[in-house]
Each structure stands twice: as structure tokens, then as C-alpha cells.
């Protein structure tokens, strides 16, 4: 056999033996046409990779090569905080006498800046902070960065239609209205006038025959009735887009939409003067007094009845795991799974239940109305946190204030973003006298993406402001130290690599600054439970992160006197 023949045979054999390389992912087509903002920071089109901002839309991507990367991308920034980061930095300070107006919402707000729809209020210094596909849970998480930090005089909030369609999973109407009320509360705390908008009707068409199935008209109307009642009861601005755009059959007027959900140029032409009128009306009212000491609590009408089953994701039915049994409790932990299919399924379950709202649904339903006139020793208190809070009442540490009506609402693996997302349901709706918040360690690990100490403390500050606005006394605990440990079988547990002590110190400094600004107590749990090297004392931990029974006993000794003082202060008034 010739040398050439041998070479050919060897080359063919090597090709057959080598795994076939996967084709590269083609670039996704741009979803947004070019937009030229009228002034720096007014708006920002969606940057690459142009993945949709919700798990439902990720699963609708036809190309299977894109579905899992879409979920992985979303897991790092569930609320799309990065969408407007640069635009927020470019936005110039308001000139003397100028009163900024900010529109906040989903794709209906987002699309308003596209040139084919006539532009976004030409000649007006209005700011667009819409993100297509988002649900109210995501908007609540980014409200601080995209609304409060920009200090508008007015915020126009159009949100809720994607809750109805199940873009982040089944969202009951009571969750939607709690989120809307929380955004109004945060606006009031910061001296911002709020305008709530009714949800637009939808329309079935030849190319989109299931719009009313995805967003049932009765459910949209029920939410709109609540929004209108809420606005009337609380002197909040209201703009009724629905009434101006609905046809006699209850669907959107055919001339106002090209796809059955979003307005076209004619639709925005109807909406713009209605928004202007509502803005002018609230501008004539005094601005809410800035600060956390709200004197008049929001009056919440009863939530609308769930007149139609909420939609979830398309495709084959998959049993949704509750957050109690969903495997890894964070997207970061999902990435540790070895099989790609397992990683994608884990991310899907995690993102469709980002806030873990179903974890305490049954328990919350059994909580009676808060006692009136109760002494501080028997007042209801909610403990909100992650696995450290969750473990405070299980196993050997099962004595969770057994003689007190204290409620444990800890969920393992959660970050401050996830806790903020469930704060209206797992704290505000339970009307406690006080809330104890221990949060931040999983943000440092990057469980829902890497965040700065200022962002972590900002999420906690939003929770504190919501509590104060509802007359709930907040008690903050500093992030606990960690230590490297050796587990059974001499397996090392290097906690200080995942939770760097210098970052823990930085987060605690940021928390202390927010506590001083808001005038609320911060218990120095870190200093009390650290050894001379700044690490968690060995007798206080089982694995370098979670607490032993002795650790929980030490934590209780720190919390109880501070909590008693806060309950007594709450009864005496602020």
C-alpha cells in the first residue's frame, strides 16, 4: 500500500473518530428598528443578544439552539436591569423648573419610541422606560433603578397584561394588584406622582386567532376595575386607555392594532392625548411628601376574582415544581448540573417561579387577620430571608420562637431581588407589626447574577420603604460572616471563595448607610458572630455558611431585644 493511500485512510479514520463539531449559533436578527432619542438617555433600544425578557418567550423560540442560551441569559438579569443602565447614566439632571415625566411599562410603552408609531411625544422631555414582555414582578424589581433613581415628577405605569398571559408563569390577579400598589407606594415615598393606566383590550385576527384566549377579556376588565377603584380611593392619577380603544364586542378596535395586542400609529395617537390629560391633572396636585414616613396608608380594594385561568408557557405540558421541591433553588446552581437538558429544565422551573411565590401560598392562606390592639410580645412578625432564615425552625434548630406568633418566610438560595419580588405577597399582605430581614449573601454568590453592594442594599431599602409605607416596623440584620469548613469525609468547603469576606463587609457598609438614611435599626449580627479573623465562629456553623443550633441560639439573643424595642416603638407611633 502506498504512503498516500495510508495517509488518506488515516485521515478518514481520524475524521470518523472525532466528534462532529456543533455549528456556531447564527446571530439573532435585530428586533428593534433604529431609534434616535430626542435627548441623551430618553430611551435605549434593546441591546444584543436580543433574547426576549421572559421565560415563556424563550420557550417560543423556534431554533432549539437558542432556547437554553436564552434561559441562561435571562437567569443572570431576570428584571433586565442592564437594559437602561447606560441610558440612566446619560440622562441629564433636570433643569430648574423642569418636571420630568417617565413612562414605565412593557412592550406597549417600549414600542412607543419606534419612529413608525409617530415618535414618543415629540418636543416633550418625557422618558421611556418600557421593556417588552415584562410582567409586574419584573417591573417591581427594576422600579428603583429605572424610576426612583431618575426622580421624575410623574410616573405613568402601564403594567399587567403580561401577568394575564403568563409570561413568567401563572400570575394570580391578587399578585398583580399587590405589585401595582407597591410601585405606587415606592413612588409616593420618593415624592413622585403616580398615574396608573388601564390595560388595553386585545383582538383576535386571521394571523393571531388566540389573542383573547391568551388574555381573556373578562380578566383584563376585572383588573381594570380594580385599577380604577384603587386610583379613586388613593388620589392616584388614572388614564383609561381601555375605554377609548375598545370596540362594542369588547375587543380592541381593529383600526388601532396591527397584531391584536400592540397599538399601531393610530392607536398611539388615541393614547397620547389621554396620557397628557392625566399628567396635567396630577401635576396640578401637590407632590407626595418625600420620605418614608407616609401618614396615609394606601386603601386596597378587594383583589379581582380570577375569572379565567391564567396562561403559562406554550408547548408540551410540564408539571411545574413548587419552590419547595424544584431542585436547585437558584439559576447559578442550575449551571452546576452536568447534562444540558437537566440545566435547561432546571432554569425553566426556576425562572417560571423566580420569586418562589407558590412556596408559602397555602401557609399564607391560613394566616388570620392581624390582631388589633395586641401587645408587642404577641404582635405578628414576619422573618424574611434565604436558607439561613428557612433553617431557623427545622431539624435541631426547630424552636423558632415557639411562644410567639412569628412567621418564617425564608426560601433557600434567594437573593434580594427575589425577596423584593415576593415582598408584597409574603410580607405586606400578611399585615405584620414588624418584619425582620436577613438578606444579601446569595447576591454575593451571584445566584441571580452579579450585583454591586449598592444594588444589593438598594433592594433591601425598597423593602424597608414598602414596610414603612404600610406602618410595618423593619428590623435589618447585617449579612453574616462565612468560614471555610471541612465536612464529613474530609471534604473541604471553601466558602470564602464564593462569599469573599471583603464583599460581605462592603455590603454591610452599604446596608448600614441605607439604615441610617431611612432611620431604621440594623443589628450588627456579623460582628457578634465573627471570630477574630472575621470568619463565622466554628461553633455557630455546620458547614461554614449555615447555622448550627448554637448559632441560631446566638442569633435569637441578638434579635429578640431589638425586635421588642421596635414593636414597642411601633405601638408608640413614629
Structure description:
α3 (64-76) packs across α14 (340-352), α6 (136-146) runs parallel beside α8 and α19 (453-469) packs parallel to α21 (501-518). The model is unreliable at 6-26, 292-296 and 309-326 (pLDDT under 50). By secondary structure, the chain is α/β, with parallel strands linked by helices. It has helices at residues 3-17, 55-59, 64-76, 85-90, 107-110, 136-146, 161-164, 173-189, 211-214, 217-233, 241-245, 265-283, 331-334, 340-352, 361-365, 387-390, 416-426, 441-445, 453-469, 495-498, 501-518, 525-529, 549-571, and strands at 101-105, 126-130, 154-158, 193-197, 237-239, 381-385, 406-410, 434-438, 473-477, 485-487, 491-493, 522-523. The strands form 3 sheets. It has a 5-stranded parallel beta sheet, with helices on both faces. Strands 7-6-8-9-12 form a 5-stranded parallel beta sheet, sandwiched between helices. The protein starts with a helix and ends with a helix. β6, α16 and β7 form a beta-alpha-beta unit. The longest helix has 23 residues, at 549-571. It contains 23 helices and 12 strands.
Search tags:
single chain; 574 residues; alpha/beta; 12 strands; 9% strand
Low-confidence stretches: 6-26, 292-296, 309-326
* General shape: globular
- Beta-strand portion reads 5-15%
User: What is the tally of helical segments?
Assistant: 23
First and last CA, distance: 96 Å
**Number of beta-strand segments:** 12
Approximate helicity band: 25-40%
Mind describing the biggest β-sheet?
Answer: 5 strands, parallel
Task: Report the mean per-residue pLDDT as an integer.
Answer: 86
Amino acid at each position: 500500500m502506498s504512503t498516500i493511500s495510508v495517509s488518506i485512510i488515516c485521515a478518514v479514520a481520524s475524521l470518523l473518530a472525532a466528534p462532529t463539531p456543533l455549528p456556531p449559533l447564527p446571530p439573532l436578527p435585530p428586533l428593534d428598528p433604529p431609534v434616535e432619542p430626542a435627548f441623551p438617555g430618553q430611551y435605549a433600544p434593546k441591546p444584543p443578544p436580543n433574547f426576549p425578557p421572559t421565560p415563556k418567550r424563550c420557550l417560543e423560540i423556534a431554533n432549539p439552539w437558542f432556547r437554553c442560551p436564552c434561559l441562561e441569559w435571562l437567569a443572570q438579569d431576570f428584571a433586565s436591569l442592564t437594559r437602561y443602565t447606560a441610558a440612566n447614566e446619560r440622562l441629564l439632571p433636570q433643569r430648574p423648573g423642569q418636571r420630568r415625566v417617565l413612562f414605565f411599562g412593557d412592550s406597549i410603552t417600549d414600542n412607543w419610541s419606534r419612529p413608525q408609531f409617530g415618535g414618543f411625544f415629540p418636543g416633550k422631555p418625557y422618558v421611556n422606560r418600557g421593556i417588552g414582555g415584562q410582567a409586574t414582578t419584573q417591573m417591581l424589581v427594576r422600579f428603583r433603578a429605572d424610576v426612583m433613581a431618575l426622580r421624575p415628577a410623574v410616573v405613568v405605569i402601564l403594567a399587567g397584561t403580561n401577568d394575564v398571559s403568563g409570561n413568567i408563569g401563572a400570575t394570580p390577579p391578587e399578585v398583580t394588584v399587590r405589585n401595582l400598589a407597591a410601585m405606587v407606594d415606592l413612588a409616593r415615598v420618593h415624592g413622585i406622582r403616580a398615574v396608573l393606566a388601564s390595560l388595553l383590550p386585545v383582538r383576535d385576527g386571521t394571523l393571531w386567532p388566540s389573542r383573547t384566549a391568551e388574555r381573556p377579556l373578562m380578566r383584563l376588565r376585572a383588573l381594570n376595575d380594580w385599577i380604577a377603584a384603587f386610583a379613586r380611593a388613593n388620589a392616584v392619577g388614572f388614564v383609561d386607555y381601555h375605554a377609548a380603544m375598545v370596540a362594542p364586542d369588547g375587543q380592541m378596535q381593529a383600526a388601532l392594532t396591527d397584531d391584536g395586542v400592540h397599538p399601531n400609529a393610530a392607536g398611539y395617537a388615541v393614547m397620547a392625548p389621554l396620557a397628557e390629560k392625566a399628567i396635567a391633572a396630577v401635576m396640578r396636585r401637590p407632590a407626595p411628601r418625600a420620605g418614608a414616613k407616609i401618614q396615609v396608608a394606601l386603601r386596597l380594594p378587594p383583589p379581582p376574582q380570577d375569572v379565567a385561568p391564567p396562561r403559562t408557557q406554550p408547548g408540551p405540558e410540564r408539571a411545574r415544581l413548587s419552590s419547595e421541591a424544584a431542585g436547585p433553588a437558584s439559576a447559578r446552581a442550575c449551571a452546576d448540573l452536568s447534562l444540558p437538558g437537566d440545566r435547561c429544565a432546571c432554569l425553566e422551573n426556576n425562572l417560571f417561579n423566580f420569586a418562589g411565590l407558590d412556596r408559602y401560598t397555602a401557609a399564607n392562606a391560613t394566616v388570620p387577620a392581624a390582631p388589633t390592639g395586641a401587645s408587642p410580645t404577641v404582635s405578628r412578625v414576619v422573618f424574611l430571608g434565604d436558607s439561613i432564615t428557612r433553617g431557623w425552625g427545622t431539624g435541631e434548630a426547630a424552636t423558632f420562637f415557639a411562644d410567639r406568633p412569628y412567621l418564617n418566610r425564608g426560601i433557600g438560595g434567594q437573593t434580594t431581588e427575589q425577596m423584593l419580588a415576593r415582598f408584597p405577597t409574603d410580607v405586606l399582605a400578611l399585615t405584620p407589626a414588624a418584619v425582620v430581614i436577613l438578606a444579601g449573601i446569595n447576591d454575593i454568590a451571584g445566584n441571580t447574577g452579579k450585583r454591586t453592594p449598592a444594588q444589593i442594599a438598594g433592594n433591601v431599602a425598597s423593602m424597608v420603604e414598602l414596610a414603612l409605607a404600610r406602618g410595618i416596623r423593619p428590623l435589618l440584620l447585617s449579612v453574616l460572616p462565612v468560614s471555610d469548613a471541612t465536612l464529613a469525609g474530609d471534604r473541604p468547603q471553601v466558602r470564602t471563595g464564593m462569599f469573599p469576606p471583603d464583599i460581605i463587609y462592603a455590603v454591610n457598609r452599604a446596608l448600614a448607610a441605607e439604615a441610617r438614611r431611612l432611620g431604621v435599626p440594623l443589628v450588627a449580627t456579623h460582628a457578634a458572630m465573627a471570630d477574630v479573623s472575621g470568619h463565622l465562629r466554628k461553633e455557630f456553623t455546620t458547614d461554614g455558611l449555615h447555622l448550627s443550633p448554637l448559632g441560631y441560639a446566638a442569633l435569637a439573643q441578638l434579635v429578640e431585644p431589638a425586635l421588642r424595642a421596635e414593636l414597642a416603638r411601633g405601638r408608640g407611633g413614629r
